Amino acid sequence: MNVRTVCLAILYDGEATGYEIRKLSVEGEYAYFIDASFGSIYPALAKLEGEGLVTSRVELQEGKPSKKVYAITEEGRRSFIAALFETLGEDDFRSEFLLFARFASELPAALVEQRLDERLKQIDGQIKELDRLCAKRSHPGDAWVIAYGRTCMASAREYIAAHRGELVALARQDDRDSKAAE
User: Which residues does the UniProt record annotate as the domain Transcription regulator PadR N-terminal (predicted)?
Assistant: First the structure.
């Protein structure tokens, strides 16, 4: 899925500025689908507008710069739905936590314990955010998608909690523990 398709998806639900599209794709409900930068959103919107798939209007704001508000056209709606018929790419999964875990054997056990606790807290926050999104869902498919994401996060949490001892056991003995043993 590309930035162009995500812009159409966001506009499918209603008008938005480029800034709002960026915010939704980074912090909001679309953050789980694709990461879109300002550098990719605005050229995509300009191209979509040039192709007649979106329109824009300038909205004046008192005491602030004007903003450009985008809306999807009927042709844009058809184009978006057609894009969903295309073969989907693989999910893109990157994790700094997993890089850390891979090298746990090179690190002190106390640090590994700390990072595991931090990750569990982070996952708890993500689950809480998914619950919040579910409560304010607007599209019929939202509940299914959010439940899928929540299940993935809950499974990750369960795995970490059940297997944390294995990762800590790989870690180096802390200096304080080795000194106490002497």
Answer: 8-79
103-117 mean pLDDT: 97
For residues 50 and 153, give the distance between their C-alpha atoms in angstroms, rounded to a whole number.
40
Same domain as 28, residue 78: yes
Query: Residue 84 carries which side chain, given as an amino acid letter?
Result: L
Q: How many CB atoms lie within 10 A of CB 130?
A: 22
* Length of the chain, in residues: 182
Please indicate, yes or no, whether residues 70 and 123 belong to a single structural domain of this protein: no
Which pLDDT value is given to residue 176?
53
What tokens does 181 get?
């043993």
Give the pLDDT confidence of 112-130 residue by residue, as tens digits.
Answer: 999 999 999 999 999 998 8
Please report whether residue 90 resides in a domain. Answer: no
What's the gap between Cα 26 and its chain centre? 6
Identify the domain containing residue 19 by its residue range: 3-84
pLDDT confidence of residue 182:
44
For the chain, where are the alpha helices, taking DSSP H only? 3-12, 18-26, 38-50, 74-84, 96-102, 109-135, 142-170, 175-181
- Residue 91 inside a domain? The answer is no
Decide: residue 127, CB within 10 A, 0-12 exposed, 13-18 middle, 19+ buried. Answer: middle
Residue 89 lies in a domain: no
